[in-house]
Design brief:
384 residues; alpha+beta; Immunoglobulin-like; four-stranded antiparallel beta sheet; 10 helices; elongated; binds 2-acetamido-2-deoxy-beta-D-glucopyranose
Length: 384
């Protein structure tokens, strides 16, 4: 019981319900001010301390936000934002629950906000331009004063009334990459602006053949009427998308939804005049062919194993036979060696001859006993 009481006691701190309004086809931005929540944190040990605060936002009784709404906060020391652009499907009311966490004390404060999503009185803007601004992050553009500055810049090149911010989204949500943490690089942000009036020549110039050629060479086209943006907003003119909704055949675009129930009709009757199909030959092909092949392989293997075995006779030889074979081979090898030696016509080295005197160089044929045969020379010469 105690944890439950404690838990509900912590969650009891909540702000009054907020009523908000979002228009279909227009950007909705709600700031989550840290100051507004800080006053409700009960733990006021140090009133001067500025605790880090993070937020969690979700659709009431759901784990996450509705698809059209996004939440962003760069660091716990900065303002959080709920932003997004509702579509026709979301018309109605949605209840969003925001929980603020004090990252020092882990206290939480809740706020419930009811967003009424109403259709746009003017309908969808038929002419839309999607700008890619390279030198801003999404949460930097969301404060009113910044995106109004951008709107003024667009205003001055697209002379017309009633410009509407349709959508603001981070480049990261559209396949962009997190930049390297050098040189103050930014993620980039896409800002979509809509109008009832057609695009001016200045705006369509970015899509001219010549400029497309420059873009292919990765160079920005230089057009003077684009100067209203710089240096504050670096717009990638090669990445400008112009959407002309009047061009598109509206009947093709809008899918017609039924009530989800099939119209009553007659029962399905399977056709009964389907011709009989003969599967016998398919059967033969699939069963007999592999069978015959298998049998053939079996027979070949059996023949090789039983009748063509090498060394069958030798394996049954007796030991004496083996010895005889052994003897025979030794004999044969010796004969062969002798044959080879006879074939040599180089004289034998003298030192290998038995009767060679190394000191005198004299050679004696051992077969012919000469006078000098040492055996006949008396060892002690008698005094004659
Ligand atoms: C707004 O931009 C986000 C991010 O690219 C996209 O998912 C969403 O569909 C856009 N909304 C409208 C109404 O165009
Ligand atoms: C627009 O910019 C993004 C991010 O830099 C890039 O990935 C994309 O290819 C660009 N699109 C065009 C048409 O240049």
């Amino acid at each position: 019981m105690v944890p439950v009481v404690l838990f509900s006691g912590i969650l009891a701190a909540s702000l009054p319900i907020l009523q908000l309004r979002a228009v279909v086809g227009e950007i909705f931005i709600h700031e989550l001010e840290r100051d507004g929540f800080q006053d409700y944190f009960t733990d006021h040990q140090e009133p001067t301390a500025d605790p880090p605060v993070t937020f969690h936002a979700n659709l009431l009784d759901h784990p996450d936000l509705p698809k059209w709404l996004r939440y962003t906060q760069r660091t716990p020391f900065q303002t959080g934002y709920l932003y997004g652009s509702a579509t026709d499907k979301e018309v109605g009311t949605q209840t969003i629950e925001v929980t603020a966490y004090n990252r020092y004390t882990y206290e939480t404060v809740r706020q419930t906000m009811v967003i009424s999503i109403v259709p746009s009185p003017d309908g969808e803007m038929p002419y839309q331009a999607d700008f890619f601004v390279k030198n801003w992050n999404v949460e930097e553009v969301l404060p009113t004063e910044v995106h109004e500055l951008f709107q003024q810049a667009v205003d001055s090149m697209w002379e017309q009334e009633g410009l509407v911010m349709v959508n603001i989204s981070s480049a990261l949500d559209r396949g962009g990459r997190v930049p390297l943490p050098i040189e103050n690089r930014k993620e980039g942000v896409y800002i979509k602006v809509g109008s009832k009036d057609p695009f001016t020549k200045c705006l369509t110039e970015a899509k001219s053949l010549e400029n497309r050629y420059w873009c292919k060479l990765e160079q920005q086209p230089v057009i003077t009427c684009y100067d209203s943006f710089s240096p504050r907003f670096k717009v990638d003119w090669c990445n400008l998308t112009l959407i002309d909704l009047t061009d598109v055949n509206s009947t093709e675009m809008v899918p017609i939804y039924g009530d989800g129930v099939l119209e009553p009709g007659p029962e399905f009757n399977p056709p009964d005049d389907a011709p009989d199909r003969v599967f016998f030959y398919d059967f033969l092909l699939t069963f007999l062919l592999p069978l015959i092949l298998g049998l053939l392989l079996c027979l070949i293997l059996a023949y090789i194993m039983c009748c063509r075995r090498e060394g069958v006779q030798r394996r049954d030889m007796k030991t004496s036979d083996i010895q005889m074979v052994h003897h025979h081979t030794i004999h044969g090898n010796t004969e062969e060696l002798r044959e080879m030696a006879r074939g040599r016509d180089v004289p034998r080295p003298l030192s290998t001859l038995p009767m060679f005197n190394i000191h005198t160089g004299e050679r004696i044929n051992p077969m012919q006993r000469s006078r000098h045969d040492s055996a006949q020379v008396p060892l002690i010469l008698a005094q004659q």
